[in-house]
UniProtKB/TrEMBL annotation:
InterPro entries: NAD(P)-bd_dom_sf (IPR036291), SDR_fam (IPR002347). This is Retinol dehydrogenase 12. It comes from Carassius auratus. It holds the Pfam family adh_short. The gene is LOC113066026. Keywords: Coiled coil, Oxidoreductase.
Length: 298
């Protein structure tokens, strides 16, 4: 069984240290977010866990401090489905932290029933794309000041399931959980490319990635038959440790110092869909995102 698993997930390892570096990871108390904290904490980083549920975050934080031997792990509240919470979190970081070297936009909602965020955005697009878009915008000056620094957007191969519906961005005319998830992940890749162009020469680089099909809590919204199917295919899915490898690779691999805007899978550059390479759509999406959030970001 292990040989099958290793066949799908090449093992990558690196001895890079992150002493004196500060990392923010969203959705850090469970799944690949938690494994990413564990790895980067072992490398000596100061890690800020940005989580919606502080009680769960606190539990995870204690376990991770013990396991990594790193006491420099903190948990702060961040609800990506509420722009007020995002602004409060960013304000705290900008006030308290002298640097942020790595921002990992990891949190995500997958294929949930139709609902809206506090600001009236469709939940998957609102959390997976707009929430992280706003967070990145609010922390960008600090990331620039801390350069060389990196922004990592956890996308998904699911970006191939959807396209960007500019005229129905909140899926009000018709909702398919799968399509809306795909749209949010496609938005992650398009905006990674746009942001990389805008940040040329700033010392801030940006990456998006597909973590692999991971056994994680993301599956909690799926129907029972689909959950059973996921279990049947579990030898071909990744453990959360394997699922975190490409995120960690994008965060620490020195070879990526001069790369920006790319999409990665299995710790290597990967192909994304034709839609994900559409610069014109990327620009329109950028403008619409700014408009929806009421921000000016040129």
């Amino acid at each position: 069984m292990h040989s099958i698993r290793n066949f799908f997930c090449g093992q990558w390892s690196s001895s890079v240290r992150l002493d004196d570096k500060t990392v923010i990871i969203t959705g850090a108390n469970t799944g690949i977010g938690k494994e990413t904290v564990r790895d980067l904490a072992k490398r000596g980083a100061r890690v800020i866990m940005a989580c919606r549920d502080l009680e769960k975050a606190e539990e995870a934080r204690k376990e991770l401090m013990e396991d990594s031997g790193n006491q420099n792990i903190v948990a702060n509240r961040l609800d990506l489905s509420d722009t007020k919470s995002i602004r409060e979190f960013a304000e705290l970081i900008n006030k308290e932290e002298k640097q942020v070297n790595i921002l990992i936009n990891n949190a995500g909602i997958m294929m949930c029933p139709y609902s809206k965020t506090a600001d009236g955005f469709e939940m998957q697009f609102g959390v997976n794309h707009l929430g992280h878009f706003l967070l990145t915008y609010l922390l960008l000056d600090l990331l620039k000041k801390s350069a060389p620094s990196r922004i990592i957007n956890v996308a998904s191969v699911a970006h191939t399931w959807g396209s960007i519906h500019l005229d129905d961005i909140n899926s009000e005319k018709g909702y398919s959980p799968r399509r809306a998830y795909g749209q949010s992940k496609l938005a992650n890749i398009l905006c990674t490319r746009s942001l990389a162009k805008r940040l040329q020469g700033s010392g801030v680089t940006v990456y998006s990635l597909h973590p692999g099909v991971v056994q994680s809590e993301l599956f909690r919204n799926l129907s029972k038959p689909v959950q059973i199917a996921v279990k049947v295919f579990s030898p071909f899915t990744k453990t959360t440790i394997q699922g975190a490898q490409t995120t960690i690779y994008c965060a620490v691999e020195p070879k990526l110092d001069n790369e920006s805007g790319g999409y990665y899978s299995d710790c290597a550059p990967a192909l994304c869909s034709r839609d994900a390479l559409d610069d014109e759509m990327a620009q329109k999406l950028w403008e619409l995102s700014c408009q929806m959030l009421g921000i000016t970001w040129d």
